[in-house]
Design goal:
1 helix, two-stranded antiparallel sheet, 41% helix
Length: 86
């Protein structure tokens, strides 16, 4: 009887760990899949029109006190369609 209770307790604990840890495991799998993919040959523009010349690399430029910029600014005319926000 004590052995079967131990088995049940272990099974419940393992299933709980699986439920809690599953999102992290899936995130790790996703990261590995991205790592294995070849790098894109071209930069996809997230805004309509040919705006490659409008890209401004200000990575690590000074911003507010004790802060650095971590991005690339894309300047486009007002009303330019946004194709992707991510």
């Amino acid at each position: 009887m004590a052995k079967s209770i131990r088995i049940i307790v272990v099974a419940v604990l393992l299933s709980g760990l699986f439920i809690v840890g599953r999102p992290w495991l899936e995130l790790g799998r996703y990261a590995l899949r991205l790592y294995a993919m070849p790098a894109p040959a071209a930069l996809c523009m997230p805004v309509g029109g040919d705006t490659r010349r409008a890209l401004t690399d200000t990575w690590q430029a000074a911003r507010a006190p004790a802060r650095r910029h971590e991005g690339i600014d894309i300047f486009a005319p007002k009303g330019t369609p946004v194709l992707s926000a991510t």
